[in-house]
UniProtKB/TrEMBL annotation, chain A:
<protein>
    <recommendedName>
        <fullName>Cytosolic iron-sulfur assembly component 2A</fullName>
    </recommendedName>
</protein>
<comment type="subunit">
    <text>Monomer and homodimer. Component of the CIA complex. Interacts with CIAO1. Interacts with IREB2. Interacts with APAF1.</text>
</comment>
<comment type="similarity">
    <text>Belongs to the MIP18 family.</text>
</comment>
<dbReference type="InterPro" id="IPR034904">
    <property type="entry name" value="FSCA_dom_sf"/>
</dbReference>
<dbReference type="Pfam" id="PF01883">
    <property type="entry name" value="FeS_assembly_P"/>
</dbReference>
<dbReference type="InterPro" id="IPR002744">
    <property type="entry name" value="MIP18-like"/>
</dbReference>
<dbReference type="GO" id="GO:0007059">
    <property type="term" value="P:chromosome segregation"/>
</dbReference>
<keyword id="KW-0732">Signal</keyword>
<dbReference type="GO" id="GO:0051604">
    <property type="term" value="P:protein maturation"/>
</dbReference>
From TrEMBL, chain B:
<dbReference type="GO" id="GO:0007059">
    <property type="term" value="P:chromosome segregation"/>
</dbReference>
<dbReference type="GO" id="GO:0097361">
    <property type="term" value="C:cytosolic [4Fe-4S] assembly targeting complex"/>
</dbReference>
<dbReference type="InterPro" id="IPR028608">
    <property type="entry name" value="CIAO1/Cia1"/>
</dbReference>
<protein>
    <recommendedName>
        <fullName>Probable cytosolic iron-sulfur protein assembly protein CIAO1</fullName>
    </recommendedName>
</protein>
<comment type="function">
    <text>Key component of the cytosolic iron-sulfur protein assembly (CIA) complex, a multiprotein complex that mediates the incorporation of iron-sulfur cluster into extramitochondrial Fe/S proteins. Seems to specifically modulate the transactivation activity of WT1. As part of the mitotic spindle-associated MMXD complex it may play a role in chromosome segregation.</text>
</comment>
<comment type="subunit">
    <text>Component of the CIA complex. Interacts with CIAO2A and forms a complex with CIAO2B and MMS19; the interactions with CIAO2A and CIAO2B are mutually exclusive. Interacts with CHD1L, ERCC2, IREB2 and POLD1. Component of the MMXD complex, which includes CIAO1, ERCC2, CIAO2B, MMS19 and SLC25A5. Interacts with WT1. Interacts with CIAO3. Interacts (via LYR motif) with HSC20.</text>
</comment>
<comment type="function">
    <text>Key component of the cytosolic iron-sulfur protein assembly (CIA) complex, a multiprotein complex that mediates the incorporation of iron-sulfur cluster into extramitochondrial Fe/S proteins. As a CIA complex component, interacts specifically with CIAO2A or CIAO2B and MMS19 to assist different branches of iron-sulfur protein assembly, depending of its interactors. The complex CIAO1:CIAO2B:MMS19 binds to and facilitates the assembly of most cytosolic-nuclear Fe/S proteins. CIAO1:CIAO2A specifically matures ACO1 and stabilizes IREB2.</text>
</comment>
<dbReference type="InterPro" id="IPR015943">
    <property type="entry name" value="WD40/YVTN_repeat-like_dom_sf"/>
</dbReference>
<comment type="similarity">
    <text>Belongs to the WD repeat CIA1 family.</text>
</comment>
Length: 160, 339
């Protein structure tokens, strides 16, 4: 159900972009945003779940439609990811958020700002989790914790 | 507005990591920077350029989040994610770690010296604010542990002339503390921000406090003493603090730092949209409801988030900034001419 509504809102936003075709350069934008979103998705889909031996894509924690890219400025983008954790367990959701952030920080080649959220309605403490995973100081400190770091590194390791 | 903030120079202060914070020494001749590489660097001028005079590398096991100079300029305190605060003593170009303050349960987020030089405050993700006393023999003693905040405490700052302490937190509030009998108490909680409050700055007189937040606003708070003319209610003998101005719509992402120039009154902000902004109070505005105008907006001041802005305490208009890209930049601010 979640996936369908995500697809719907993505299609809607695409229609809105296309409706601005009369503006010069606007025709360029939707395709670039789609391309950028796919670039992001390609990097996050292979991230392994911290608990299960599957990727986030296999578990449908992330889907193509869960990535949104907006142009902030020339060659500067805002990437928004809404992921769906498999279980309503606070620490796992935070861990997934951490993995997403670290992978993109390291591998995304274009200039971007990143916002990561739990998709609405999937968690009782989603506001708390969203606040934590978007606090860069908390993220930096977490990555200096050797145990946490090890888990994240294992999850973001590129498949052979 | 583009010309009101001119770049004087840049240095790659913390290679391959982020630069988190900057502090000018009281004489305005040295700038301390600290970062994710666990080091502190001391910068000074040599002719027209800024050069690294010292590197303090043996103090911390993790990120150094903030640094603060003592009012006499002979000591530097550093707050780290390794849960400790180091006190460094300056001996010409050398710095020696003379004490390590322990006690916080996890990352220390901020450290600040009181103007008297006898008190130090630290705060942490463990939700507490600690007040430490220093004696003539450089012995430090924790005199109070304040557990008023309900979340991670991001920043502490002392009032410029009174022994009054302010703290900013992930719980979206600002709290104020003073000494009562032999202990420290929280006498006011400033509510209004809708997300984490990252930093604070008092104005030169100490009558007003600026706070900046993840909610993309800067709020200005004013102190009202008991029996004030404006009829603002106070509880007992404690002053009341009210929000008298909110600067919103100027910043497009989290505001990580705010700095109030003690010489000119100009307000600078460090933002997650990579820009530096300067605001000045309109001269004709009502002190109870002041208005501030944006006098400088430097788009792309850095290639990544700006984490800190710091006004030089002696040279008006000299501003330093640092970023997630590891760089420190120096700027000359000149209030734009015009109507």
């Amino acid at each position: 159900m979640e996936r369908v509504s995500g697809l719907l809102s993505w299609t809607l936003s695409r229609v809105l972009w296309l409706s601005g075709l009369s503006e010069p350069g606007a025709a360029r934008q939707p395709r670039i945003m789609e391309e950028k979103a796919l670039e992001v998705y390609d990097l996050i889909r292979t991230i392994r779940d911290p608990e299960k031996p599957n990727t986030l894509e296999e578990l449908e924690v992330v889907t193509e439609s869960c990535v949104e890219v907006q142009e902030r400025d020339e060659e500067d983008y805002l990437v928004i990811i809404r992921f769906t954790p498999t279980v309503p367990h606070c620490s796992l959701a935070t861990l997934i958020g951490l993995c997403l952030r670290v992978k993109l920080q390291r591998c995304l080649p274009f200039k971007h700002k990143l916002e990561i959220y739990i998709s609405e309605g999937t968690h009782s403490t989603e506001e708390d989790i969203n606040k934590q995973i978007n606090d860069k100081e908390r993220v930096a400190a977490a990555m200096e914790n050797p145990n946490l770091r090890e888990i994240v590194e294992q999850c973001v390791l590129e498949p052979d | 507005m583009k010309d009101s903030l001119v770049l004087l120079g840049r240095v790659q202060a913390h290679p391959d990591s982020r630069c988190w914070f900057l502090a000018w020494n009281p004489a305005g001749t040295l700038l301390a920077s600290c970062g994710g590489d666990r080091r502190i660097r001391i910068w000074g001028t040599e002719g027209d350029s800024w050069v690294c005079k010292s590197v303090l590398s043996e103090g911390h096991q993790r990120t150094v989040r903030k640094v603060a100079w003592s009012p006499c300029g002979n000591y530097l305190a550093s707050a780290s994610f390794d849960a400790t605060t180091c006190i460094w003593k300056k001996n010409q170009d050398d710095f020696e770690c003379v004490t390590t303050l322990e006690g916080h349960e996890n990352e220390v987020k901020s450290v600040a010296w009181a103007p008297s030089g006898n008190l130090l405050a630290t705060c942490s993700r463990d939700k507490s604010v600690w007040v430490w006393e220093v004696d003539e023999e450089d012995e430090y003693e924790c005199v109070s542990v304040l557990n008023s905040h309900t979340q991670d405490v991001k920043h502490v700052v002392w009032h410029p002339s009174q022994e009054l302490l302010a703290s900013a937190s992930y719980d979206d509030t600002v709290k104020l503390y003073r000494e009562e009998e032999d202990d420290w108490v929280c006498f006011a909680t400033l509510e209004g921000h809708e997300s984490t409050v990252w930093s604070l700055a008092f104005d030169p007189t100490g009558q007003r406090l600026a706070s900046c937040s993840d909610d993309r606003t800067v709020r200005i708070w004013r102190q009202y003493l008991p029996g004030n003319e404006q009829g603002v209610a106070c509880s007992g003998s404690d002053p009341s603090w009210k929000c008298i101005c909110t600067l919103s719509g100027f910043h497009s992402r989290t505001i990580y730092d705010v700095a109030w120039c003690q010489l000119t009154g100009a307000l600078a902000t460090a933002c997650g949209d990579d820009a530096i902004r300067v605001f000045e109070e309109d001269p004709s505005s009502d002190p109870q409801q002041p208005t501030f105008s944006l006098t400088a907006h430097l788009h792309q001041a850095h290639s990544q988030d700006v984490n800190c802005v710091a006004w030089n305490p002696k040279e008006p208009g000299l501003l330093a900034s640092c970023s997630d890209d590891g760089e420190v930049a120096f700027w000359k601010y000149q209030r734009p001419e015009g109507p």
